């Protein structure tokens, strides 16, 4: 299971350098001597899509998280980082100025700041009861919170409350309000206007990280309960708890955020340097956004997966101070279809670790990186966890020269296991990016004698692809699936993968993101990690177990390479948005 040091020491050293390099921003980000000079001006954002969600209940894309970083506050948050996405992991106070933790680590008592208030459609003070209301809204059958599993697993009484809420008919706002007003979550109490008490089902070392997510944003019931989640009416009557409020919103065209007058910024790490942030949501493509950055008509871009390679090359040559690079923690991987009763011969074969090893040795990760734009866009990945996550080992139990694969070793393993003519059906999202990856996988596996039948899945949304993989009637249509994930938070965030998708004690049966896996040894390591005050060693062990067993096939980790206009200064990364912290960057002119 361990990497033979003599054989691949140089390779690991090279990989470590790549990860370290990607984790350090190379653009100009030094702060001026006079911080007051950072304030003022308008940040112009070229957005290739309209903002997909502004309601903190359902916002679950990195892009929407970038936006509502400016309009919402939580009990705790991250301050942003000049160095890289993976460096923005220290939890700091936000609306809660302090908190107490009981000796058994089950009860957290948060003390809210003085003089905190809403803006927009409400201007009243923020109270502890507003946090209770926001969490009680999570299981609304009209628009369930996007990451409800975290709260089912950690908040005492939440699952029971959610199960009852599911019985409320959809389409009836009055019924929703009546349920929320007449039911409580046993583990969540407002002791008074300034004191919130949270009781957990079990100790959770990552609970403060979970509370940084925008879902746990206070909301005034008297306004929010009038509208369906993230409806146009909700957006037109938006309530902000952050330093910016919605000044205007023209659906499909433009969103303008303006600084809140006389905002109480005590304890807020969002410095809110610019007076306004204007999102032009009519930009046609990544190419168009890139052109706007280069001409200065926009300062940053939104909803751009990767910028054109020629634009990045021009920035490197002409304006490297406005090109920012960081490892992202986001991964593309290949899951294997593992139903209890295999539906295809390939699914039966993949239950043998040596067959999975053969597939893994066949992969040409270097070619995938090349196809995605080179090291400015991706680096090879050989572990379940990525480089920004606690538990990452920087080890490769199955090394190959330059990450190009080892077809000879793969063929030998296939012959040994009696599968010299293995045929695999590989599902992928029908987008240009994933088609490139699928074609690379098909070509690489052919070198080992493996026949790949590509199965493009219509629709470019991740949700549609996930639904296809989870549908029982489709289980005989795919053996492998090329899929992806982005950590909901960086650092201590292995709960999502090792502790979630791969942990059969937590996710028994079914398929989530193409993953159906059961390993009692992994489950035991995960249980230790959840209970440990410092889980790093246990997450490392869990990662080692899952990686060696090829719980899925790691492929690449995405790299964020972000160009900006020459007006942008004080560049700051935001880990939750996996991109720029729009509240902490500044503009000149």
TrEMBL record:
<keyword id="KW-0732">Signal</keyword>
<dbReference type="GO" id="GO:1904680">
    <property type="term" value="F:peptide transmembrane transporter activity"/>
</dbReference>
<dbReference type="GO" id="GO:0043190">
    <property type="term" value="C:ATP-binding cassette (ABC) transporter complex"/>
</dbReference>
<dbReference type="GO" id="GO:0042597">
    <property type="term" value="C:periplasmic space"/>
</dbReference>
<dbReference type="GO" id="GO:0015833">
    <property type="term" value="P:peptide transport"/>
</dbReference>
<feature type="signal peptide">
    <location>
        <begin position="1"/>
        <end position="21"/>
    </location>
</feature>
<protein>
    <submittedName>
        <fullName>ABC transporter substrate-binding protein</fullName>
    </submittedName>
</protein>
<dbReference type="InterPro" id="IPR030678">
    <property type="entry name" value="Peptide/Ni-bd"/>
</dbReference>
<dbReference type="InterPro" id="IPR039424">
    <property type="entry name" value="SBP_5"/>
</dbReference>
<dbReference type="GO" id="GO:0030313">
    <property type="term" value="C:cell envelope"/>
</dbReference>
<feature type="domain" description="Solute-binding protein family 5">
    <location>
        <begin position="90"/>
        <end position="493"/>
    </location>
</feature>
<comment type="similarity">
    <text>Belongs to the bacterial solute-binding protein 5 family.</text>
</comment>
<dbReference type="InterPro" id="IPR000914">
    <property type="entry name" value="SBP_5_dom"/>
</dbReference>
<dbReference type="Pfam" id="PF00496">
    <property type="entry name" value="SBP_bac_5"/>
</dbReference>
<keyword id="KW-0813">Transport</keyword>
């Amino acid at each position: 299971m361990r990497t033979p040091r003599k054989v691949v020491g140089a390779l690991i050293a090279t990989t470590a350098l790549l990860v370290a390099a990607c984790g350090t921003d190379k653009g100009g980000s030094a702060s001026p001597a006079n911080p007051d000079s950072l304030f003022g001006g308008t940040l112009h954002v070229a957005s290739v899509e309209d903002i997909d969600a502004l309601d903190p209940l359902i916002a679950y894309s990195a892009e929407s998280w970038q936006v509502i970083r400016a309009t919402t506050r939580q009990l705790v948050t991250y301050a942003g980082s000049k160095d890289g996405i993976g460096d923005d992991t220290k939890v700091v106070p936000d609306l809660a100025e302090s908190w107490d933790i009981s000796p058994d680590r089950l009860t957290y008592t948060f003390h809210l700041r003085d003089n905190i208030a809403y803006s927009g459609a409400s201007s009243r003070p923020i109270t502890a009861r507003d946090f209770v209301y926001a969490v009680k809204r999570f299981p609304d059958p009209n628009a369930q919170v996007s990451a409800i599993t975290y709260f089912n697993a950690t908040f005492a009484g939440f699952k029971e409350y959610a199960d009852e809420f599911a019985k409320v008919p959809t389409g009836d706002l009055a019924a929703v309000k009546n349920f929320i007003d007449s039911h409580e979550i046993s583990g969540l109490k407002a002791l008074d206007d300034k004191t919130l008490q949270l009781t957990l089902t079990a100790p959770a070392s990552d609970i403060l990280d979970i509370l940084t997510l925008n879902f746990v944003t206070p909301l005034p019931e008297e306004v929010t309960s009038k509208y369906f989640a993230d409806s146009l009416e909700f957006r037109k009557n938006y309530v902000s708890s952050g330093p910016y409020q919605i000044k205007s919103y023209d659906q499909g065209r433009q969103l303008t955020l303006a600084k809140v007058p006389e905002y109480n910024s005590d304890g807020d790490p969002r410095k809110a340097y610019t007076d306004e942030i204007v999102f032009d949501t009519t930009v046609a493509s990544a190419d168009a956004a890139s052109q706007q950055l280069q001409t200065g008509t926009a300062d940053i871009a939104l909803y751009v997966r990767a910028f054109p390679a020629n634009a990045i090359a021009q920035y490197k040559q002409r304006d490297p101070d406005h090109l920012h690079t960081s490892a992202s923690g986001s991964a593309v991987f290949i899951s294997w279809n593992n139903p209890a009763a295999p539906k295809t011969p390939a699914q039966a074969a993949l239950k043998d670790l040596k067959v999975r090893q053969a597939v893994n040795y066949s992969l040409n990760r270097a070619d995938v990186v090349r196809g995605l734009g080179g090291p400015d866009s991706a680096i090879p990945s050989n572990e379940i966890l990525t480089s920004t996550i606690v538990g990452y080992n920087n080890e490769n139990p199955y090394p190959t020269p330059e990450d190009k694969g080892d077809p000879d070793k793969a063929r030998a393993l296939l012959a040994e296991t009696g599968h010299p003519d293995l045929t695999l059906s590989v599902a992928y999202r029908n987008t240009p990016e994933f088609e490139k990856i699928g074609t690379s996988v098909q070509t690489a596996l052919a070198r080992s004698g493996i026949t790949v039948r590509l199965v493009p899945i219509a629709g470019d949304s991740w949700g549609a692809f996930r639904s296809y993989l989870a549908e029982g009637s489709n289980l005989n249509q795919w053996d492998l699936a090329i899929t992806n994930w982005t950590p909901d938070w960086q650092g201590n965030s292995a709960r999502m993968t090792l502790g979630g998708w791969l942990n059969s004690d937590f996710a028994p049966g079914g398929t989530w993101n193409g993953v159906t896996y059961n390993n009692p040894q992994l489950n035991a390591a995960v249980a230790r990690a959840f209970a440990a005050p410092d889980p790093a060693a246990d997450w490392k062990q869990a990662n080692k177990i899952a990686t060696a067993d090829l719980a899925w096939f790691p492929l690449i980790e995405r790299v964020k390479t972000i160009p900006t206009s020459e007006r942008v200064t004080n560049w700051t990364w935001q880990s939750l948005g996996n991109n720029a912290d729009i509240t902490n960057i500044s503009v000149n002119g």
